[in-house]
Amino acid sequence: MSEEQAAPTDEKQNPAAPPAAPSSASPPTSVILLGFAAVALLGVLIAISMGGSRDPSGGDDEGVRELKARIQLQQQNLNAERARLGLSPLYGDETIESAEAVAARITDDAATLVALSKGVQKIIIDKDAEIAARTKETTEAVKLQNILRDELAQVKKELNRALIDGSDASTLRSQLEAANQRLVSLGEEVRRLNEEAAGGRIAINEKAALEARIRELEAQLSQASLFAGTEAELFKEAVELFRSLRELENKPDSEIARAYSQYGANLGATVLDKLDFETGSSEVHAGDLEKIRSFVEQAPGNALLFVIGYASETGDVDHNRALSSDRATAVARVLDAAKKPGQRVQAAYMGQTDRFGSRFPERNQICEVWQIVPKD
C-alpha cells in the first residue's frame, strides 16, 4: 500500500487526536547536548575566575612576583622624584587614578617642568650676561689703573727733572749775574788803572778770565734749558707742532702724510731728516755728526732747530720714554754746539711709537730734526 493510501486509514482509527507537528520543528538531540556542554564549560570558567579573585597571590609564580616587585619599586622611585620637585605622587595605597588621569597629570607635570627649564635657562643667560659685563668692567678698570699708574710715574719723573733743572738753572743764572756785575766793576777798575801798566794788565787778565767764565756759564745755562720735559717748557714756536705730532699716534699713514705736508704752510715747520739709533742706545752715529752740523749751516739765522726723540714699542714703557729723551738730547747737544748766533735749539720726546714701521720695530728708534722759522 502506498503512503497516500495509509494516511486515511490512520485518521479513521484516532478521530479525536490532534494533527501531528511537522517533523522539522523538533531540534536534533546533538544540538541540545552541545548546548549543555557549553553551559557546563562556562560554569567551570566562572568558578576558576572566582577562585582566582579570592586569592590573587596564591597562584602567581616567582616571575610574576618579581615583576610586581619591580613595578612597585619603580612607582616608589617616581613618587620620590616627584616629591623632590614639589609634585604630588602618582601612586598610593588609598587612591588609584585611572590611566586617563595619570596621563593628564603627567602632561601637566611635563608642561610645568618645561616652564621651569625655560625659567632656569633665562636665569642662567641673565647671570652669564651680568658676569660678562662685570668682567668687562673689571678689565677696563685694570687697564685704566695701569694707564694712571704710568701717567703718575711719568709725572713724578718730569717733576723731579723739572725740580733739578729749575734748581740748576736758578744757580747758573745767579752765577751769571754775579759774573756780569763783577765784569762791570772790573771794567771800571781797568779804566781807573789804565795809567798803571802793571795794575792794568792784572785787571785785564782777570777780566778775560771772567769773560771766559761767563761764556761757560751761558753754555751751561743753554744746556740746562736744552731739553723740554713738559709742554710748558717748550718754546712757543714748537708747542703747536709738538701737539700736532702727538695727536698723530695710531692714525693711518695717509693722514700722517697729509699732516706732514701741511706743517710748512701752517706752522713754518719742515722736517730736515730722521736719524737712526741702535736698539737700547742713545749714542749718535759718528757718520751722522757732519750731517747734523750741516743742518745748522743750512738753517736761517732765526730758526729753531727742534729735535724729537722716539723709541720702539719693544721693552718697558718707562725705559723707552727715558731712551727717547736721551736720543733727542744727544742730537740737540751737537746742534747747540754748532749753532749760529740767533738760532735756538730744543729737544723733546714722544716715547714709544709704531708710527714709522709697525712690523719693523727698529724703524721707530729715531730722532726727527725739525726746522721752525717764526713767521714774525
What attributes does this structure have?
4 strands, alpha+beta, rod-shaped, 9 helices, 64% helix, four-stranded mixed beta sheet, 376 residues
Structure description:
By secondary structure, the protein is of the alpha+beta class. Helices cover 64% and strands 9% of the residues. A 4-stranded mixed sheet has the order 1-4-2-3. Strand 2, helix 9 (317-338) and strand 3 form a beta-alpha-beta unit. The chain is rod-shaped and about 150 Å long. The termini are far apart. The relative contact order is 0.06. The model is unreliable at 1-27 and 51-58 (pLDDT under 50).
Compact summary:
Helix content is 64%, strand content 9%.
How are the elements arranged and paired?
Layout: H1 3-13, H2 29-54, H3 62-84, H4 99-192, H5 197-224, H6 236-247, H7 253-267, E1 269-276, H8 289-298, E2 304-311, H9 317-338, E3 344-352, E4 366-372
Parallel strand pairs: 2-3
Antiparallel strand pairs: 1-4, 2-4
Strand residues, percent: 5-15%
What summary fits the major beta sheet?
4 strands, mixed
**Number of DSSP strands?**
4
Mean pLDDT: 76
Shape: rod-shaped
* Estimated structural class: alpha+beta
Identify low-pLDDT runs.
1-27, 51-58
Run of helices and strands: HHHHHHHEHEHEE
Strand line-up of the largest beta sheet: 1-4-2-3
Radius of gyration, in Å, reads: 59 Å
Q: What is the number of helices? A: 9
What fraction, in percent, of the residue positions are helical? 55-70%
Q: Span between N and C termini?
A: 175 Å
